[in-house]
Design brief:
Oligomer: single chain
Largest sheet: 7 strands, parallel
Mean pLDDT: 96
Strand order of the largest sheet: 3-2-1-4-5-6-8
Radius of gyration: 19 Å
Order of helices and strands: EHEHEEHEHEHEHEHEHHHH
Structural class: alpha/beta
CATH topology of the domain at 3-138 and 170-193 and 258-267: Rossmann fold
Strand content: 5-15%
Shape: globular
Low-confidence stretches: none
């Protein structure tokens, strides 16, 4: 069986390939789909097939012989619906038997700014007739490394999330779940993949205090106050709107579910966020 991973030189895609090999998939049964093959020499050295593949111009011939395809959602916000749809079309044209897509929690009804493009992609995939599995990945621990850096400067975590909680998970755990699903045969399933623990921003501040060895407090503000603070710090309007929008989604409870589906797939408890906050790579 041939398994293909898009974005294979990216953070998530590369980890998926690592987990597939660690779990026993022979490297020569894996296809790394990348925009720049020169960046994938390490994968080729391990025996993984490397093929050129661009979301904006997906070539169906790159998917020849692929049985199951992992479509890691793109990062070109504003263009992802068309890009993802083009990948689905290429998979259909190539005869791919099954597609696994990385989406976001509550993608069908969320106020999270990432949700609309995921919702549209899910609808397109389901409507395409291609057998699928949707992985609604919860928020990544790694999203809070910027808060670690900010806390190192200011001794605070600024949030407009109220008493909302976040059941985040490490990128590696989410990649391992994608590897498990991709190597399987299940179809027609939507998973909501979250960490085992839903933490508060007071909890995050306490973890940062431990990591930074200093006092760190969570500072709760209104969305308007956070908008003003981030704007004053020099962030562009798009990034400010995104950060505040995520906080609104957290306040609404959209990122606080603890489903147990992630640890169930990977067969072990999810890693705590403090492990990621300690990472200095």
């Amino acid at each position: 069986m041939s398994l293909a991973v898009t974005g294979a030189t990216g953070h998530l895609g590369g980890l998926v390939i690592d987990h597939l090999i660690a779990r026993g998939t022979p490297a020569d049964q894996l296809v790394a789909l990348v925009r720049d093959p020169a960046k994938a020499s390490g994968l080729a050295d391990r025996g993984v097939q490397v093929r050129t593949f661009d979301y904006s111009r997906p070539d169906a011939s790159a998917l020849t012989g692929v049985d199951s395809l992992l479509l890691v959602s793109g990062t070109d916000f504003g263009h992802r619906i068309a890009q993802h749809a083009a990948v689905v079309d290429a998979a259909l044209a190539a005869g791919v038997e099954r597609l696994v897509y990385t989406s976001a929690p509550h993608a069908d009804a969320s106020i999270n700014p990432v949700a609309p493009e995921h919702k549209a992609t899910e609808e397109y995939l389901v409507g395409s007739g291609l057998p699928y599995v949707i992985l609604r990945n919860g928020w990544y621990h790694e999203n809070y490394l910027a808060d670690r850096d900010a806390a190192a400067r200011s001794n605070q975590v600024l949030t407009a999330s109220g008493d909302g909680r976040v059941a985040s998970a490490s990128r590696s755990d989410l990649a391992e779940a994608a590897a498990v699903v991709l190597a399987g045969t299940e179809t027609g399933r939507t998973y909501t993949l979250t960490g085992d623990v839903a933490w508060s921003f007071d909890d995050l501040a306490a973890d940062l205090a431990t990591v930074l060895d200093r006092e760190v407090t969570a500072t709760y503000v209104t969305p308007e106050e956070k908008t003003a603070a981030l704007t004053a710090a020099g962030l562009d309007a798009g990034l400010v709107g995104f950060a505040v929008g995520v906080d609104r989604a957290i306040a609404a409870g959209e990122l606080g579910d603890t489903t147990g589906e992630l640890s169930g797939l990977i067969g072990h408890p999810t890693a705590p966020i403090i492990d990621t906050l300690r990472f200095r790579g």
